[in-house]
Design a protein that fits this description.
This protein is α/β, with parallel strands linked by helices. The protein has 32 helices and 37 strands.
Length: 1002
């Protein structure tokens, strides 16, 4: 069986099988491919489940991602009752022992409307089941209880749920959006699965103790592993001790219904034997670890022979690769590439259809790609029917049909007179994107104003009383009315209590570090004086900033409406836009269509789709008769952007060129002449574009990528540009000045904070350099077929570092890349890495921007303490561009030796590991720098005194007032109540935003 033949044969087998079909794949990529393809051929009639791998090495010190655990538990829960359907599992995953079915039964629960529920008991039950108590539910396996509300994100569910109680009865159950916290439509009930693949209750911990003694003949109390478990903190990698939590484990075979049919791919036996050898090798390597001794391989895994022996208890089907004349007569169509510049772009496809005696189905990878192909076929006068699935195609008679079907390679059925041509055979590439969770929008205001990160001891600003220190939440009974209050401490240990209903009066303090924030003395006038001085300075700063923007406002903008064929161009985007990306595109197109000049910042994490926002803007501007300049910080990024723009615009009459040092002098002169004459629509380049010899005929849009990477002179040039043309800035970590201006309304801000579907956060570690750690990290990546970046940022010693790595990792194929190499050689090395011709790239920060290698999911950064926060964030963004768990190791000489800003930078990036945190990191960057760079040294003292958030609000008001022509003598007058409430008069004022103050002077 070749191409999509396996998926077709398996779909037919599943439809005719008496029970479910278990498909054993040779590896994870093959399993994922079958999961995508089988539903199309089965017509959507059958559930298709993937039982995923943990994506860790045997005996690893890492735990699997919660999303993977969720998918595994959901599959185990469904399997015993499955009557029809397909379950796909890689052979190495099938060899792994799992929890017995009795565990899932004991810790699963159906919660329905009308049930009686004691929240105290429920909290204990959830914790025993492995759920984590949090303040705000965001991820699988979390729950939060607030009053009569229970929020929880069950394992196996796509969304979290909110359970509302009336007294002790479940009144409603609704899904809710974890970002906005808004509830959705009510549901009759919800299924709760365990939070882990093993129990964590006291009985299970005791069983672990006893089994540990039996297996290792040692006292568990001396083991760090057991001590952490007993303290309620199961350590990373605890899953590799799963058998110790049970009297007996199970295998996936124990969950299968008796009428299951098993099909396995050719190569499963050799893949299973290779994995078993890896298990034994890693067990031997770990056998000397006293704190974390490895279990014998047989306790955790089945041997390959045992797996194939278990097959005999079920009906079986063997899948062989390659054509087989005695079975289905299957083959794969040849490549049929489109040539958009030829007179007959689809000549190869037309010739194939003309020479094939049967009917042909073209499989597009998305609705947008389907429409693009339909229009392309129509232009070549090829009539085509659109069908929904394989069954509809088989029932039809049209010689050529088109469907959305994620097949990687086509198939030929000569006897049946049917051919399937995959889109990748026409375009030479395929871009499959799967949705892991429901589409989720991110609220930028919530990111900016977020107080949820506050920890006791953090400094805050109260708008009437100044800088104090947050002590925590306290419940107080005032005048017979109970409520929650924020406790804030000021100088001389004076305290105030702020009702949670008046949170708008409190902001996070950003300025100095937490230990040196200037606590104000209540009632001393100190806070009023600080505000007065800041107000005077902020007005000057606002006037200076507005001078630039007044020039822009005075200039009549050039409105660029959407061209008629924009929707067709948008539909050709090969991925599904995320909600945030959709909103950012809408914002930019709205700006272009308006009369006033655009100055918008699009902030999105690395790999979240900012480039497509730029492509859409460039397409609209160029169609509107304006030239577009794309400014990027590095030559490599210019080349990658040029390729992206050319590919996206290949079917449109727009000329794109790159102006970098990779072009010869003659090529550069031709590009400059074409720009000046208006023959070139879009030019992409480095700061070379800012030189005096670069002249445009009708420049209308400038796109600046990663502004923080440019120098002072270039930024000054950008300032001048902003007064003349539409400007779009793309950034993953906005520099603080950019963020401040965007937040104060001088520049518009769009945030892309929702990751592409199936994207997982990069796990980040700060560690002292250790050869064994480097070897382990690389082997983990190599074993799953991935690639590794090793960043060593000193050109003088990079060859020696590469030599040392080659000795440490004889398994690796290694190359070196740095900015002092000849341009062509550097370009070739990066292209070879992209095409997976080697698996370890030793490099400098030249990879910081623009290198997109989805199979590279581990990065090791040597001397990470010497790099800035924005750099570290960008470098970490080189990995994690697929749905696999990615790892970033920030290696330092010694964590104890780190001081000041270097330690804070590393702690910030290590603690903010979730997706989409470039925006949050910019705020941390302000704190680390003391916000001094924000608006110049003169303002830094005032920012330090009153905090960045309030300074930014003063700036915003000053800007607003100056624009309105107001005097703005008292910028804070509208916010203060003019009163301080004490315990004596608070009862009479409960309906107002009250403060309870107690002085505890020592």
């Amino acid at each position: 069986l070749t191409g999509a033949g396996q998926a077709l044969a398996l779909a037919e087998a599943a439809l005719s099988a008496p029970g479910p079909l278990l498909v054993v794949a040779a590896d994870t990529p093959a399993a994922e491919r079958l999961q995508r393809e089988i539903p199309f051929f089965a017509g959507g009639e059958l559930p298709v489940l993937l039982f995923p791998d943990w994506e860790t090495l045997p005996y690893d010190a890492f735990s699997p991602h919660q999303d993977l655990i969720s998918d595994r538990l959901a599959a185990l829960h469904r399997l015993p009752a499955l009557t029809r359907g397909v379950v796909i599992v890689p052979i190495a995953t099938l060899m792994q022992r799992v929890a017995p079915q009795t565990y899932l039964d004991a810790y699963s629960l159906r919660l329905k409307r009308g049930d009686r529920l004691n929240l105290t008991d429920m909290r204990e039950r959830l914790i025993r089941a492995g759920y984590s108590a949090v303040t705000q539910v965001m991820e699988h396996g979390e729950f939060a209880i607030r009053g009569g509300l229970l929020d929880l994100f069950p394992m196996g569910s796509d969304t979290p749920f909110r359970v509302e109680l009336f007294d002790d009865e479940v009144d409603s159950i609704r899904r809710f959006d974890p970002e906005t916290q808004r509830s959705q439509d009510p549901l009759p009930g919800v299924d709760l699965l365990p939070g882990r693949e093993f129990p964590v209750n006291p009985q299970a911990v005791e069983r672990f103790y006893q089994r540990y003694m039996q297996v290792f003949e040692a006292n568990p109390a001396r083991s760090a592993l057991y001590r952490e478990l007993q303290a309620g903190r199961p350590p990373a990698g605890i899953e590799f001790y799963l058998p110790l939590f049970f009297e007996a484990t199970a295998t996936l075979f124990d969950y299968l219904p008796q009428d299951t049919v098993i099909a396995w791919q050719e190569g499963c036996l050799s893949a299973g034997e290779a994995f078993w050898n890896t298990v034994r090798e890693r067990h031997a390597a770990r056998s000397q670890a006293p704190d974390y001794p490895p279990l014998p391989p047989g306790e955790l895994y089945l041997e390959p022979g045992s797996v194939f022996a278990a097959f005999k208890g079920f009906a079986q089907v063997a899948l062989r690769d390659g054509p087989d004349a005695d079975a289905l007569a299957l083959a794969t169509p040849p490549a049929l590439p489109v040539d958009s510049r030829a007179a007959r772009p689809l000549a190869a496809l037309e010739d194939f259809i003309a020479g094939f005696t049967g009917r042909t189905l073209i499989a597009a990878e998305s609705l947008g790609r389907r429409e693009t192909l339909r229009e392309l076929l129509a232009r070549q006068k090829l009539a085509v029917d659109v069908v929904d699935d394989w069954a509809q195609f088989c029932a039809g008679t049209a010689p050529l049909a088109l469907a959305v079907a994620p097949v990687d390679a086509g198939l030929l059925l000569p006897r049946a007179g049917v051919a399937v041509v995959a889109e990748s055979q026409i375009y030479g590439e395929h871009v499959v994107q799967q949705r892991r969770r429901e589409r989720r929008e991110t609220d930028p205001d919530a990111i900016i104003r977020n107080l949820s990160e506050l920890a006791p001891g953090d400094p805050v600003v109260h708008i009437e009383h100044g800088v104090g220190r947050y002590l925590g939440l306290e419940t107080l009974d005032v005048g017979g009315q109970g409520g929650e209050y924020l406790a804030l401490e000021y100088a001389d240990r004076a305290k105030i209590f702020v009702p949670v209903g008046s949170l708008d009066l409190v902001h996070r303090y950003t300025g100095a570090d937490a230990a040196h924030a200037p606590l104000h003395k209540l009632g001393s006038g100190q806070w009023e004086r600080a505000q007065r001085k800041a107000r005077e300075q902020v007005r000057d700063a606002a006037a200076e900033l507005l001078a630039i923007y007044a020039k822009r406002a005075a200039r009549a903008g050039h409105a660029i409406p959407l061209p008629d064929d924009y929707s067709r161009f948008a539909a050709s985007f090969p991925f599904e836009e995320t909600p945030d990306q959709d909103r950012a595109i809408g914002d930019v197109l709205g700006d272009l269509a308006a009369e006033k000049p655009m100055d918008r910042v699009v902030c999105g994490d690395v790999g979240f789709g900012k480039t497509e926002v730029a492509v859409r803007a460039a397409f609209v501007a160029a169609h509107g008769g304006r030239q577009v300049a794309v400014l990027v910080p590095t030559t490599l990024l210019a080349q990658q952007h040029a390729d992206t723009f050319r590919n996206r615009l290949a079917d449109w009459p727009l000329r794109v060129a790159a102006l970098t040092r990779f072009e010869s002098k003659a090529e550069q002169q031709q590009i400059l002449a074409d720009l000046a004459a208006g023959r070139l629509d879009i030019v992409i380049g480095t700061h070379r574009l800012l030189q005096k010899d670069v002249k445009f005929d009708r420049l209308g849009l400038v796109i600046i990528d990663e502004e923080h990477r440019f120098g002072v002179k270039q930024k000054e040039a950008f300032k001048a540009l902003r007064a003349e043309v539409d400007v779009l800035t793309l950034t993953a970590t906005p520099i603080p000045r950019t963020l401040s201006l965007a937040m104060s309304g001088l520049r518009d801000l769009s945030i892309i904070a929702s990751p592409p579907p199936r994207r997982m956060a990069v796990r980040t570690f700060v560690r002292p350099y250790d050869g064994e750690l480097v070897r382990e990290a690389c082997l983990r990546e190599f074993k799953r077929g991935g690639q590794v970046y090793f960043l060593h940022n000193k050109v003088e010693t990079i060859e020696r570092a590469a030599h040392d790595l080659a000795k440490l990792l004889p398994e690796a194929t290694l190359r070196v890349a740095h900015g002092q190499m000849p341009e062509r050689e550097l370009e070739r090395i990066m292209a070879d890495f992209h095409h997976r011709r080697f698996n370890l790239l030793v490099c400098t920060t030249i990879i910081e921007s623009g290198i997109d290698v989805p199979t590279a999911n581990t990065i090791l950064i040597d001397r990470a303490d010497t790099l800035g926060l924005a750099q570290l964030h960008q470098l970490r963004g080189r990995v994690g561009r697929s749905h696999h768990q990615a790892y970033a190791y920030l290696m330092v000489p010694s964590r104890d030796a780190l001081k000041g800003d270097a330690l804070k930078r590393l702690e910030a990036i290590e603690s903010l590991g979730e997706l989409g945190i470039g925006f949050t990191l910019a705020s941390h960057d302000m704190e680390i720098r003391g916000a001094g760079e924000l608006l110049g040294d003169e303002q830094s003292g005032h920012i330090q005194e009153i905090g960045f958030t309030l300074f930014n609000e003063l700036l915003e008001r000053a800007v607003r007032d100056i624009r309105a022509g107001a005097n703005a003598t008292c910028l804070l007058g509208a916010t203060g109540t003019g009163k301080t409430f004490t315990m004596a008069n608070v009862i009479a004022q409960l309906e107002k935003p009250t403060l309870i103050i107690s002085h505890n002077k020592t």
